[in-house]
Structure formats: structure tokens, C-alpha cells
Amino acid sequence: MTVVRYERRGPVAVVTMNRPKYRNAQNSAMTYALDEAFYRAVADDEVKVIVLAGEGKHFSAGHDIGTPGRDAHVSFKRKASLWWDHVGKEGAESRFARESEVYLGMCRRWREIPKPTIAMVQGACIAGGLMLAWVCDLIIASDDAFFADPVVRMGIPGVEYFAHPWAMPPRIAKEFLFTGDRMPARRAYEVGMVNRVVAREELEAETFALAERIAAMPRLGLALTKKAVNQAEDLQGMRAGMDSVFGLHHLAHAHNAETSADSLAGMDPKSMKAAADGS
């Protein structure tokens, strides 16, 4: 099965995560396939806007920590960082190298795509799913969408692409992380994380109407405007802040590996869901 689908709709490229059986959990194969699709869209002069979508009921349940397709042990051709391959390394050396590449590195590259990107979010957008939505310039959510970063349950201070204090006000970000609770789409709109909330049956039409409206703008003007806003975020400390939190993230992994079953504190998809459901 193709884990990422690519199609053109006039001036809009549609990049769709395609692991619906696993709620579009992101293994490395999907991550690199997303990267290839984004490259393809950037290289196509006819494409003005990119839409990121998830097949099925959910946008993405996050990083793959337990499906049969989990491939953390597999080497891929590195593109996002200058770290060595994680395969064959041990402990923190392996984790830091891999996550510098497929998590923080990839997300930073995608944030810098010189064409406007829109995340079309339905259902679950959890942990690593947040990272994919947050690298996009705009987020359109259906009224059944919800957002969560529950990894504090693992003793880890949020996902690797730590955009929380820029995606929402700091006190809201703290509550979001401290509780691990699901944030409904309407609340995400109220705190400024989401641009629009629409009925589920209107999500696709609303997203593509906006994409086509943006596509009418000059390509260079869009690219420069995007760069201007991104630079303003970085001047507010976004890039440096992420670097510092990435170190804390790996301190937590190392602590877990020393004091519990593994670097995820023994948590898996089933136990994480049970904790979220209060069962």
C-alpha cells in the first residue's frame, strides 16, 4: 500500500497520509514519503498551494510506537540533518540521531516550504500529528477534530517539534501539556491554533476553496510573505526554544531508559489510550 498519496487539483497539490487502519500513525516510511511528496509539489511550477490531509476518520494519531509497520530500526537516505545514521548505534546516540532527522529536522524543513501549506484536519490530531499540522501555515479543522499532546504521561516534555508556546498562548500550552487532555476544535480555534472550524461534511470544500483563493496570489509574493512571518516567529525565539526543549526531550528519554522498561516509560498505544480515557 502507498503510505502517502499525491495528486494535483489544478494549482493545488494534495498530499494524503494513507495508513487509515492505524489512524495514520507516522512510521519512517511515511515520513520520508511525505518529504518526497512535498519536494514534488515545490518543484512543480503549476502548484501554488499544498494541502496536507489524512485518509479515513483521523488526521493522524502521531508517531508509530506500536503498529506492525513500525520501522525505527530501518535506515533511510538522510536528508534533514547532518547527524550519522541511527542504525547500529546504542542508547541516546541512536535516539538523538534518529529524532534529529525524522522529527525535528523534517518538520523544520517542511515549515520552510516556500509555498503556502494547509492542514485539513479531521478526528484525531495527537502528538506527532500536531507536528504535521503545526508546520503548515494554516489549519482548517472539522467540528469533530481534537488535538492532544499526552506524552507528559511518558515523563517527556511534549513532542520533538516543540511549537506549543507559539501555536497557543503559554498558559494554555501549559494546561494542554500538564493534563494531556483533548482540546476540541472549537477551543483550538478560540486560542488561535486553528484558522477555521467547519462541519465535517464541509471540510474538503472549505479547504479547497481557501486554497484556490490563495493560489490566485503571485507565487513569489506568497513565498516572501511566508518567509517574513516565519522569520518573525524565529526572532521571538521559536527556533532556539525548540533546540533547548529538544535537549530536555532526550534527557527524559534517557531517564526513562535508566529507570523504567524503555525510553517511553513502558507506554504503548493501548496504555496511552487507556490513560486518555481514564480507564
Task: Give the topology, please.
Layout: E1 4-9, E2 12-17, H1 28-43, E3 49-54, H2 91-111, E4 117-121, E5 124-126, H3 128-134, E6 138-142, E7 146-148, H4 164-167, H5 170-179, E8 183-184, H6 185-190, E9 196-198, H7 203-215, H8 219-235, H9 238-259, H10 269-277
Helix content estimate: 40-55%
Q: Strands across the major sheet, in which order? A: 1-2-3-4-6-9
Task: Please state the structural category.
Answer: alpha/beta
Instruction: Give the N-terminus to C-terminus distance in angstroms.
Output: 34 Å
What general outline do the C-alpha atoms trace?
globular
The arrangement of helices and strands along the chain is EEHEHEEHEEHHEHEHHHH
Q: Determine the strand fraction and express it as a percent band.
A: 5-15%
Unreliable spans? none
Rounded to an integer in angstroms, the radius of gyration calculated over CA atoms is 18 Å
Number of helices: 10
Q: What is the residue-averaged pLDDT?
A: 95
Question: Quick one: biggest sheet?
Answer: 6 strands, mixed
Give the total of beta strands: 9
Question: What does this protein look like?
Answer:
Helices cover 45% and strands 14% of the residues. With 279 residues, the chain is of the alpha/beta class. The strands form two sheets. Strands 1-2-3-4-6-9 form a six-stranded mixed β-sheet, with helices on both faces. Helix 2 links the parallel strand 3 (49-54) and strand 4. Helix 2 (91-111) runs antiparallel to helix 9. The protein is globular and about 55 Å long. The chain starts with a strand and ends with a helix. The relative contact order is 0.13.
